[in-house]
Amino acid sequence: EVQLVESGGGLVQPGGSLRLSCAASGFTVSSDSMSWYRQAPGKGLEWVSMFYSETTGGSQYYADSVKGRFTISRDKSRNTLFLQMHSLRSEDTAVYYCATRKGDYWGQGTLVTVSS
Amino acid sequence: DIQMTQSPSSLSASVGDRVTITCRASQAVNSYLNWYQQKPGKAPKLLISSASSLQSGVPSRFSGGGSGTEFTLTISSLQPEDFATYYCQQIYSTPLTFGTGTRVDIK
Question: What is the pLDDT of residue A45?
Fold first, then answer.
């Protein structure tokens, strides 16, 4: 059974940093392209970043709103996807989800709150 | 960037009603179009992939259609558990983009 479990969210001050993790089981993170998404309180869904699978080149892409501040990575030995977030702003406050490329598997989400 | 225009933004319907939600892409996405259902406090659930492929375990009252730039999600007979927010998403090219959502309420 495929399962994705996010962790690492919390309260952080503006300008701070946070690293989110997405631990996968039931499949290999490097064998599928995977994305991070977010949803601000009461708002719609927003794609944040994607890490393409090894077989499709392994490139990383970012939404303009996070480019230069967020970095997506993966650790094959831990079968985990990461999102390193720097220079956080109040508008980054959201529930962050990881998901497979197809969208058929999502984690439960982890809440990031950026506030002083 | 591909813009996804979803309508209506909300609707009120009764159990047993037929409901159709429309999603229009600003450029062709072939059939790289997903439909999700989301309930409060939960992650989105994939209902339809590739514009019209019903995911395993999803009731057959849900159906998707269209290609290119125009897509629809239809619920043939609304059930109490279907009251939720629905989103379309193109996965044709990055940035992956969503429609603004359709909230389906009980009339």
Answer: 98
Find the residue in A nearest to B43 (Cα). A108
Q: Which residue has the tokens 């650790």?
A: A75
- What angle is formed at CA B54 by the lines to CA B23 and CA B18, rounded to 5 degrees? 60
Q: Token pair 């501040």 is at which residue?
A: A69
- B65: tokens are 């259609």
Which of A35, A44, A109 shows the shortest C-beta gap to B96?
A: A35
Nearest CA to CA, how far is B15 from chain A (Å)? 25
Mean pLDDT score, B94-101: 97
Which of A97, A103, A107 is nearest residue B49 as measured by Cβ atoms?
A103
**What are A115's two structure tokens?**
């506030």
CA distance B11 to B8: 7
A27, pLDDT greater than 90: no
CB count within 10 Å of CB B97 equals 22
Phi, psi of A30 (to 5 degrees): -80, -10
Specify the pairing of strand A60-62 against strand B62-67: unpaired
| Distance in angstroms (rounded) separating the CA atoms of residues A36 and A53 | 14
Q: What is the 3-state secondary structure (H, E, C) of B58-78?
A: CCCCEEEEEECCEEEEEECCC
Give, in order, the Cα–Cα distances in Å from A88 to each of A40, B1, B98.
14, 24, 23
CA distance B87 to A45: 8
The 10s digit of each residue's pLDDT in B71-95 is 999 999 999 999 999 999 999 999 9
